[in-house]
Fold:
Amino acid sequence: MKAFPIWLILGATLTFLIGPFLIVIFAGLSAGEALAFPPQGLSLKWYAKVFTVESFRASFALSMFLAVFGTLAALILGIPAAYALNRYKLPGAETIRTVVAAPIIVPGIIVGLSLLRYFVVPLNVSILVALFVTHTALVLPYAVRVVSSSLNNLRADMEEAAVILGCTRLQAFIKVVLPNIRGGILAAFILGFVASFNEVPASLFLSGPGVRTLPIDMLSYMEITFDPSVAALSALLAFMSVGIVFLAERLLGFSRYV
Amino acid sequence: MSDAFVSLTDLTLSYGKTVAVPRLNLDIKKGELIALLGPSGCGKTTTMRAIAGLLTPSSGRITIDGRDVTRVPANKRGIGLVFQSYALFPHLSAFENVAFGLRLQNLGRDEIQAKTQAGMSTVGLEGFEDRKPAEMSGGQQQRLALARSLVMEPKVLLLDEPLSNLDARLRLEMRNELQRVQKETGITMVFVTHDQAEALALADRIVLMKGGKIEQLGTPAQLYAEPSTVFAADFMGFENIFATKGDTLVSDKGSLPLQFQSTAEQLAWRPSGVAVGHGPYTGRVVASSFAGGHREYVIDSALGPVKADASIDISEVVIGQELAFDLPQSTARALTK
Amino acid sequence: MFLNRTEGLPLALPAALFTFLVFLVPVGILLSVAFQNVGGGFSLQGYVDFFAQPLNRTVFLRTLKLGVLVAAVSAVIGYAAAFCIVSLPATSRGRVFGLIVLPLMISPVARTYAWIVILGRSGIVNDVIVGLGLSRLPIRFLFTETAVFIGLLQLFLPLMIISLVSAMENVPKDAVPAARVLGANWMQVFFRVILPLTKEGLVVGGTLVFTGALTAYITPAILGGSKVLMLETLLYQKVNVSNDFVSASVIAMILIVMSFSANLLLKRIATAKR
Structure:
């Protein structure tokens, strides 16, 4: 094949994948009142407005909280699990693996509904707790998978060496395993953060007065108002995600772990 | 028995339901260099891991320096182990790798510094303190792993296939290095290998293992000259092994009359022990290769292929020609089953 | 030391128990709802009732159709794109691959929202159509199956391309030139050489895209609305509008069975070779 058709195909594909998104960025720069492209004049007013909408601020804070602490909780549960699944011949290892991976297979909307009906309501749990639990469970499979793959690359005899030199099993884990899977853990955190922050279906049913994740808030804002502020917000969020991933790639070659 | 420094008594080792080593008994003297020799799956590595405490025996006893350590965890046993892969810590510098175990002992800074330095110079790694393991050659990594174990002043140093990851030249160098370190420190060493030449060259005594059992135990000279079983003979380079039936040698290919009296069940000859160019037997040469000091022939005889080394003084016999040979009593090794 | 079986359990159990209790148990209860009659006994009446309604059947078939269609079209585009990517030199290959993966990091809400700007009544496409005089009035694109299809395709195409690129990287470099030398035309090269060698990647990508499209909520919600319902949006309606939990339970079961069998198929094929 010649170079020309290659770039033509790739150009078309990339335009289809990324082009719409560039349009969103520009639509947010509109000086007019309605969503349109090309924008009617340029201004940053919609980008500025995003920061003044009270509900966006609250839901951003909630989404941030869920993404950070839900992912941390998933790592706290997931790292030991990944370690045990990798280093021990556990009885029922296959079952444990399947159970932990289940949240990937079960559609999110079902998860949210089930938790609302059979967890939140009967046990009188707050929506916030339910959201936290859901996001933790959704991120857990990523945490286990990414940490597992980085443990796979770490020879088990290194821990044996540490034990023979006098470490307890725990010391060997802290002094030898952790420093060597740091990159994998950070990669898992970033993946989990992005997945949690962008999550919609599972959080759909789990919203109450004043408790709503940012993407859900954006969806309901769009139903009522058709101004370019959602475009501006979308653009800002995308910059955030891409920025984090870009930084991670620069710092530790993030893509090695994914 | 009294001078045993490490002693394994009725040691049974298993993985789940599979018994890898059944009721092993072995005594190792202080300062000895012992080789556990055998093909893969013979239980040599399993035995070594049990001595190190990485594997709990299902029954039996391990004592080291008079102390029963059977139930003592690996981190309290005072054993050193150099892994086949070296198992160096990639995130730590060479210095920190060597200092790793010392730091766990709550020693003073100066003492750690001094011992680590001394350890690194013992193996000739001065000046490499700040290197990461990945920035060192295979030979240097091997030395570093050795130093990391030695600074702990272990009662016993175990080495798992210590030379297998090195090229031929480094292997010889490292072999001498290991012998030197052993002489200097007087440490008891047990190393695992599948290479008989390595075991013969290094060890004071060789434990030849097969199927989890000790097949033969002895000095390199004993094992080389007097293997007592078919397996040991085969492992030690007796490539021509035939069963005897009365006055004949038999194989599944055929038989030949024996030229002397023997009550042994099996008789074995090294290729160098087969007389070539004269003798009562003949066969067709099917392979011939020059090996420096001698020429290696494969002769197709009534017993099937016989491997024979001939002096280069004898003129070459071309493939396809007949060659006379003898299986003399003087070089025969009598074997039990 | 590492063969001790039970010692590792306390490390793995918290994660498994957590997922089991807060995740599988509630989902299990929801799924069981449709199998119960009023008295609490076993019954399939919920399923019978669900499929008796024409709307439900339409939505079910539409979801299946869109899932298959999105998977098929993304396979076609994916092969073209993946083939181009692997024939690039290493440095630009990495960059282009990065750009393909990039959208996956962006919120699906934002990615779907873009299509409102493009396909809306005063969107770009309509501007062009009206501007060129092809139509006097703007054409309705939003809330059509086409819009949902385009949105889903854009959302999941990267997954297909990633799978196919990694499959193609394992195709021996000389396979294509070798086939060409032996006289194969490009069609034959594709069907006789590339396709058999990248079958696994196609299955992986196809499953990911199919289950993704099946269980997507945002795209049908924004681009389909209540005019083009898919199973997920239908489920939301059943619960929020008609309080019909039996139907919700049926839909949940359909979705789980479909994505579970797709995943099982994937696992089967991915491990068959090893």
Summary: Helices of chain B lie at 44-52, 94-103, 109-122, 138-150, 168-185, 196-202, 220-225, 230-235. The longest strand of chain B covers residues 275-290. The two ends of chain B are 28 Å apart (CA to CA).
